[in-house]
User: What shape does this take?
Amino acid sequence: MSLAGKVAIVTGSSMGIGEAIAKALLKDGAKVVLADIKEPTWQIPENAIHVKCDVSNSADVQAVIKKAIEKWRRLDIIVNNAGIYPFVPLENMTEAQWDKVMNVNAKSVSLLREQGCSIGIYKGCSLGTCTKGNYGQRNRTRRNSDSGRWSNFYRRTGNESISRNDTSG
Ligand SMILES: NC(=O)c1ccc[n+]([C@@H]2O[C@H](COP(=O)([O-])OP(=O)(O)OC[C@H]3O[C@@H](n4cnc5c(N)ncnc54)[C@H](O)[C@@H]3O)[C@@H](O)[C@H]2O)c1
Assistant: This one.
């Protein structure tokens, strides 16, 4: 599939699955904004830029969208990949840990979508690397429930031409 001329934002792409997604999009011809709180751990080519961004912070998200538009004048794809999954059983989770997971994994998806759509160019191809949530994974309860929530969100908004893509189920 050719993505020549398309512009994508991939969150959490300084390493891991996000890095692999960004590389695949680049290989198919897209220009990619790497939105991550950390510097990329890989050598990024000239058709990619890194923008330091905490996806749970609306000002940071706004800045990433702005940067993509300033640089390449369009936005076609947002990959909501950034996520954290602390290995803490629910009963031991602090309020701060709960809020952090929800903000990074769940609130961010809404922020990216709202800010993306607010520019009027982006029509909403929004992908996520969430799972449906796994039963029995006691130490990742919070992460599994926010994943399930966003799986349902992607499914529900499918008729608004927002795609959903789970990396595992
Ligand atoms: N690894 C797995 O087995 C697996 C399975 C299913 C789903 N997932 C999901 O795929 C996604 C990526 O997983 P991974 O294993 O590659 O993770 P990872 O920890 O290797 O990489 C996550 C990246 O996200 C960035 N990040 C973290 N918090 C951020 C924030 N607030 N703002 C911006 N960037 C932030 C990190 O700096 C890092 O570059 C996650 O959402 C995870 O829940 C992972």
